[in-house]
Amino acid sequence: MYDSNSNSSESVRSNCPDCEGTLRVLRVIGGRASAEYWTMRCVRCGGIHLDIVDGRTPAPAPAA
Predict the structure, then answer these.
(1) CA-to-CA distance for 44 and 62, rounded, in angstroms?
(2) Whole-structure pTM value
(3) Which of 3, 29, 45, 49 could form an SS bridge with 37, CB 3.0 to 4.6 Å?
(4) What phi-psi label fits residue 46: left (phi over 0), alpha (psi between -120 and 50 degrees) or beta?
(5) First-to-last CA distance in the chain?
(6) How many helices (H) and strands (E) does the chain have?
């Protein structure tokens, strides 16, 4: 989840809160005040999750 004291990707959820499956980044959208909205999909259950992270976090490449 979003951690205002961190600017690393460690603040981004990596496991699905529903089934504990791995989350893959689908899209990163820029927001206000250096925030970014990371849309992720669970590889196990297919759930979609959104995290808001510090925009200074290096964004990974979108999932294929």
Answers:
(1) 17
(2) 0.62
(3) 29
(4) left
(5) 23
(6) 0, 3
